[in-house]
Design goal:
115 residues; mainly alpha; 69% helix; 0% strand
Amino acid sequence: MFVTFFSLFSFSDVDTSRFDIPHMDKVVHFTFYFVMVLLAFSASIKEDLQEKDMLKLLWYIVLFAVVYGIIIEVIQNIATYDRHGDPLDALANSTGAISGMLVFRFWFFRKRSLK
């Protein structure tokens, strides 16, 4: 809901001149989808799931996030009058989702040694 609201809400009346950082919107897109994958996977894992099933679940969450990001960009282009869909935003969304997956994959699924 958070991502949908902030992706479709009009910020034309909000003064953002103090925050004129080049490509900051791409950082925001990346962060939204990175956190989305982390939260969705954290909320979905169960103790009785095997590692193979957890990895499959993680891939489904990433696939959902990537498709969702593309759909939101299309909706911005079609259904809003002051927001415009941007392929680079969709790329930032996808990169954030994949990065979230990689963080989980290399942090939680690595084999721990007994040193």
